[in-house]
Design a protein that fits this description.
five-stranded mixed β-sheet; 23% strand; 37% helix; alpha/beta
């Protein structure tokens, strides 16, 4: 039998999966991301963990077709040019991890990899082209058109989180710009907007009971119960998200927009909040481009990394 390994490298944890070459997940596990000393141990830790797992399973590395890995940064021909969350500068991931692991390595941006996972084995599997939007601590995106990941000339294709939606914003995004989509539609962004609205609007709201412990999940939960301010927050954020999705779709015209990440755990309520606004913003594609939820959840990254080997 032939195998593949999929790796989803995050700022706090590294998820890994062992697959058959048919894409069947045999085992998955995770290790902590060691970002000390500018992340110098990260690739060593990945190589060691994969080698241990293969040995435990009695799999010879000659049976492994390759290791795919999603990186939280832009990747151009296997080279990462700065991963702020990991402390990395410029690193040839494919070469260095390949040497350490003894496997053929294929690297790509993590959002693109998650998009590939949904495209090949998740909610996007019945479509020829998708826009994948991942709404978590930040906002990431991936575009797959006719089976091809749109990487751009330097690997920055699909970086939708840093589209400017409010040039008058006073606060800075983590990227250094102001008014990025991420500041309004990520979990941290939605919570920020809620706190600002609670400060400005003295109307009664169950959100006040949470104090500093307020989370985006709380906001959506209370919105579902009919809380006025919670619904104002969600409507405000999702209007921005719908507008950006519509604008992107007018350029690339995908068959579906797929929403993933922690915010998407709000489920059909999230779709209901976006769909009408999305369709009203469309001229030529209204009713044709579908909006749906991702189905692979936190495993989208390892599945996509597995399919990256196939690609």
């Amino acid at each position: 039998m032939r195998y593949r390994v999929g790796v989803d490298l995050g700022g706090t944890a590294i998820k890994m999966g062992l697959f058959t070459n048919k894409g069947e997940l045999l085992d998955c596990w995770s290790i902590k991301t060691n970002t000390s000393n500018n992340g110098e141990k990260i690739l060593i830790d990945i190589a060691k963990s994969v080698s241990v797992k293969l040995a435990m399973k009695g799999i010879d590395k000659k049976q492994v077709e390759g290791l795919g890995i999603g990186i939280p940064g832009s990747v151009n021909h296997g080279i990462v040019d700065k991963c702020i969350n990991l402390g990395w500068g410029s690193i040839n991931i494919e070469k260095e991890l390949g040497t350490l692991s003894g496997l053929k390595v294929y690297a790509e941006n993590d959002a693109n990899v998650a998009a590939l996972g949904e495209y090949e084995g998740g909610s996007g599997s019945k479509y020829s082209s998708i826009l994948f939007m991942t709404l978590g601590t930040g906002v990431g995106g991936g575009l797959i058109i006719d089976g091809k990941i749109i990487q751009g000339f330097c690997g920055c294709g699909g970086e939708i989180g840093h589209i400017t939606v409010n040039p008058d914003e006073k606060l800075s995004c983590n990227c250094g710009k102001k008014g990025c989509l991420e500041q309004y539609t990520s979990a941290t962004g939605i919570r920020r907007i809620a706190l600002e609205m609670l400060d400005e609007d003295k109307e009664e709201s169950s959100l006040r009971e949470y104090g500093d412990e307020l989370t985006t999940k709380d906001i959506f939960d209370e919105a579902k119960k009919g809380d006025i301010i919670a619904n104002k927050v969600v409507d405000y954020s999702m209007t921005i998200l719908a507008r950006v999705a519509s604008n992107i779709c007018h350029v690339v015209n995908p068959e579906a927009v797929i929403l993933g990440g922690g915010v998407a755990n709000a489920g059909d309520f999230l779709i209901d909040k976006i769909e009408d606004k999305f369709n009203k913003g469309n001229i030529y594609i209204s009713g044709d481009t579908k909006i749906c939820l991702a189905s692979l959840g936190e495993k989208a990254g390892i599945y996509g990394a597995c399919y990256l080997v196939k690609k």
